[in-house]
């Protein structure tokens, strides 16, 4: 997983994360609100209508954010807690743990539930493979 992060400070970073090879075809990378998100994607034919919203299927996201915005985000009870991974001159590179709840809740979707939970269980390992290069 490679891409570019742009912080609210204007600082830009190239990033690289190592995602398990056997995840190929089971996720997509999308950017929403300045966060590069790894989103579970079981394929259009397997995606239940009730789980179409990407926010519920986000396994984790990576973002660059100012120290003040990082603190504010973690102080707000409505938001998930961001984990600081790296810091460059007041800009934090953080991980948003994505959704806590499994987005697949019917008995018919037991296989999707299992896959989503398996992928979510590897988030810590994956985010700690992060490599970031600040751009001039």
Radius of gyration: 15 Å
Global morphology: elongated
β-strand amount: 35-45%
Q: Calculate the terminal CA-CA distance, rounded to whole Å.
A: 22 Å
Largest sheet: 5 strands, antiparallel
Quickly count the helices.
Answer: 4
What is the spatial order of strands in the main beta sheet?
3-4-5-7-6
Low-confidence stretches: none
Question: How many structural domains?
Answer: 1
List how many beta strands DSSP finds: 8
Write the element-wise H/E pattern from the N-terminal end onward.
EEEEHEHEEHHE
Provide the helix percentage.
10-25%
Describe the protein's architecture and organization.
- The structure is a single chain.
- The chain is of the alpha+beta class and 136 residues long.
- It has 4 helices and 8 strands.
- The chain has one domain.
- Strand 1 (2-6) and strand 2 (12-16) form a beta hairpin.
- It is elongated.
Keywords:
single chain; elongated; 136 residues; 35% strand; three-stranded antiparallel sheet; alpha+beta; 4 helices
Would you summarize the structure shown here?
Helices cover 21% and strands 35% of the residues. The protein is α+β, with helices and mostly antiparallel strands. The radius of gyration is 15 Å and the shape is elongated.
Write the topology of this structure:
Layout: E1 2-6, E2 12-16, E3 27-32, E4 35-40, H1 54-57, E5 58-66, H2 67-75, E6 82-88, E7 91-96, H3 110-120, H4 123-127, E8 131-134
